[in-house]
C-alpha cells in the first residue's frame, strides 16, 4: 500500500473515531441532563397547620398505634395503614426524619380527654424514614372531634429542616368541606395536598398514602 493510501485510511479511521466519540458524548450529556432534571424538579410544599393548643402528651416511640406495647389487645375501630414519603423541595427523599403523629380513637376521644378513651389504643406514634424517605404507621380510622373532619396530626423533625406540623385528611369524606383548618386554605391545589390517597390493596388493612414536602433541600442533593 502506498503512503498516500495509508494516510487516507488513517484519516478515515480518525473520522470514524471522532464521530463515535461525539455520539457517546451527546448520549452522556443527555443522560446527565435527564438526571439533573430529575433532582431539580420542584415539589409543591405541603401546607403547614399549627395547633393553637400544642399537644403536650407523651409521644410513643412506636409506629403501631392499634395496641400498646406488650399488650395482646387491639383498639376498637377500622384497621388502616398509612404510608408515605418525606421529601425536600427538590423532591429528594429525606432520610432519618422523625415523623410523629397523634389522633383521636374510633369514638372521637383524644388522649388528654376524659376516662372515655380506648385503653387499648396508643393515640400517638413515631416512625423514622428510611433511605428512600419512606415511613408507615399501623393505626385505626379516627373518629370525629368537635365536628371537624377525621384527621391525623403530623409533626416532622430533622436537623436540616425547620420543624413541620400539619394534618392528614381522608379522601371523599363529607366533613372535609366543613373542617375549619381546611377551609382556611383557599387554594384548592394546596388543600388537596393535605388529603391522602386511597391505595387499592387485596388484603387488609386499607392503605392511605400521604407524602409531605418540606421547605428547604437536603445537604446532599443527589444520591
TrEMBL record:
Belongs to the intradiol ring-cleavage dioxygenase family. It comes from Candidatus Jidaibacter acanthamoebae. GO terms for molecular function: ferric iron binding; oxidoreductase activity, acting on single donors with incorporation of molecular oxygen, incorporation of two atoms of oxygen. This is Dioxygenase. Keywords: Dioxygenase, Oxidoreductase. Residues 74-215 form the Intradiol ring-cleavage dioxygenases domain. The keyword Nucleotide-binding does not apply. The keyword Oxidoreductase applies. Signal peptide: none annotated.
Amino acid at each position: 500500500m502506498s503512503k498516500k493510501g495509508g494516510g487516507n485510511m488513517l484519516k478515515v479511521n480518525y473520522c470514524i473515531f471522532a464521530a463515535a466519540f461525539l455520539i457517546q458524548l451527546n448520549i452522556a450529556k443527555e443522560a446527565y441532563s435527564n438526571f439533573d432534571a430529575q433532582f431539580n424538579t420542584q415539589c409543591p410544599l405541603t401546607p403547614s397547620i399549627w395547633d393553637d393548643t400544642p399537644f403536650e402528651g407523651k409521644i410513643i416511640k412506636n409506629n403501631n398505634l392499634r395496641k400498646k406495647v406488650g399488650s395482646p389487645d387491639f383498639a376498637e375501630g377500622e384497621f388502616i395503614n398509612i404510608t408515605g414519603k418525606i421529601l425536600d423541595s427538590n423532591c429528594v427523599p429525606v432520610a432519618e426524619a422523625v415523623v410523629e403523629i397523634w389522633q383521636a380513637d374510633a369514638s372521637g376521644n383524644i388522649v388528654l380527654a376524659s376516662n372515655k378513651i380506648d385503653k387499648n389504643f396508643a393515640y400517638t406514634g413515631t416512625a423514622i424514614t428510611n433511605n428512600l424517605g419512606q415511613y408507615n404507621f399501623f393505626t385505626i380510622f379516627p373518629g370525629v372531634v368537635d365536628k371537624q373532619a377525621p384527621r391525623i396530626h403530623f409533626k416532622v423533625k430533622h436537623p436540616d429542616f425547620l420543624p413541620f406540623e400539619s394534618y392528614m385528611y381522608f379522601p371523599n369524606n363529607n366533613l372535609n368541606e366543613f373542617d375549619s383548618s381546611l377551609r382556611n386554605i383557599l387554594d384548592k391545589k394546596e388543600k388537596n395536598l393535605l388529603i391522602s390517597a386511597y391505595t387499592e390493596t387485596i388484603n387488609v388493612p386499607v392503605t392511605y398514602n400521604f407524602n409531605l414536602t418540606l421547605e428547604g433541600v437536603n445537604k446532599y442533593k443527589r444520591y
